[in-house]
Design goal:
mainly alpha; 6 helices; single chain; 2 domains; globular
């Protein structure tokens, strides 16, 4: 059984598909966060409209995830039962995304002449408790994503997608 190395075009296409999948997932998650935040703030008569930022965050953080996956970030538990790599990747990617978000907010804040503390107030209020809470939420929200990707790795390329997205004929009952 010979395994062929994918061409650059095939790798780019696969990477783009992964990016779209991750982007869609993160955009939905961040949009739901933004809607929930606006509902809570509306109860206190504070208007907020941050759906555009949810989309931009989803696109930016999806790129971070694709690059991290290509660099085999958090791939140490491949041979373990699926629950371990799923939970490990969810936790480590949540920390990675949280750190990237802190760096991003800091860079934007510094560009606008803000201090570090002023820059990160958008992330969980800028407190350690708020930032860790956000990372914990991200870790939990990444469990289904990494569960799906680990199942896809075990079943083989395309098999899990076919199970989810193509109709299956039920066996006839006699």
């Amino acid at each position: 059984m010979s395994s062929t190395t994918p061409t650059l075009k095939q790798r780019a296409y696969h990477g783009f598909k992964e990016y779209l999948f991750i982007s869609c997932y993160l955009c939905v998650v961040f949009s739901l966060f933004a809607v929930y935040k606006s509902v809570i703030l509306a109860e206190h008569h504070i208007a907020i409209a941050s759906q555009g930022f949810a989309l931009l965050n989803g696109l930016a953080l999806a790129k971070v995830m694709v690059v991290a996956q290509e660099l085999h970030f958090a791939d140490q538990l491949k041979a373990a039962p699926l629950i371990y790599p799923t939970l490990f990747k969810s936790a480590t990617f949540a920390v990675l995304l949280g750190c990237f978000k802190i760096l991003e907010e800091t860079a934007v804040g510094l560009y606008h002449g803000q201090s570090f503390n002023e820059s990160i107030t958008a992330i969980g209020g800028g407190t350690l408790k708020g930032i860790l809470s956000l990372m914990a939420l991200l870790a939990v929200l990444l469990i289904p994503f990494f569960g799906f990707t680990e199942l896809r790795r075990v079943f083989g390329e395309g098999k899990l997608e076919r199970l989810f997205f193509t109709s299956r004929a039920l066996p006839s009952q006699h």
